[in-house]
Give the backbone structure.
Amino acid sequence: MSAEHTLQGGAAGTVLSAQGLVMRFGGITATNNVTLNLQRGARHALIGPNGAGKTTLINLLTGVLQPTEGRIMLEGQDITTLAPHQRVNRGMVRTFQINQLFDSLTPLQTLSLTVSQHLGLGTKWWQPLGRSREVTERCARLLAQFHLTEVMNQPTRVLAYGKRRLLEIAIALACEPRVLLLDEPVAGVPAGEREELLQTVAALPAHVSVLLIEHDMDLVFSFANFMTVLVNGTLLTEGPPEQIANDPQVKAVYLGHGEGGEGNAHEAPGAGGTSNG
Ligand SMILES: Nc1ncnc2c1ncn2[C@@H]1O[C@H](COP(=O)(O)OP(=O)(O)O)[C@@H](O)[C@H]1O
Ligand SMILES: [Mg+2]
């Protein structure tokens, strides 16, 4: 990739840039000099075997962890030392694991809260919902987009797992992100509920730049237009999906790590037969 980006990370350029990131935990180097550029509007997948450092990298990007070395630029601005909420305010959002509070609320309530807060209307959730027309309309759109309309009045704790994952992405999108980080959105989702989730991920707004961490190679290859492969904290290679699928090094890594375990597809990229072009 050409290094000659515009300095501002201009209209067609890099929206998020991790430069020379290093993360050490005691003697373990979880992230070893990783440079990754997310292009505007990208569908960028981050793959690699268990322990490769994918989650650590997301934690560095979102500010959960401070890197030992390196820097992170968002829209041309250095955000390396910003707190997680400051990064969210600047448009970089990861999917939220639904917490205890949200568990007792309905999807409609949760999204109303999130949208209200995002629009600067505060979190007066005890007020009757539907006070603000804009909030109501945005929630209705999000509920429809994420196939949550028919369960919108059920407490989140009773929802099927796939619906909960959909709600997590809907909450993130309610913050109107410019950059969306998805950490294994289909992990643990039963086969019967996957299709809805895959379709929804595929239909995310084109202007949102997405970085997806995923084990499921069907999803990765149907989704991504660019891929980065991490192994042992180090960037092994990156490029368009066709290139990655045919990369002997990548195949070797995946075939060498055939741990079964969680029932997810851990097969070699391209071996799933769904990399349709
Ligand atoms: N908080 C931590 N303390 C110590 N080691 C950690 C911590 N977080 C991750 N690691 C180590 O860093 C490496 C990468 O882990 P992780 O980022 O979770 O990988 P992945 O998400 O690709 O499976 C692993 O060796 C893991 O044990
Ligand atoms: Mg992980």
In short: The chain is about 35% helix and 20% strand.
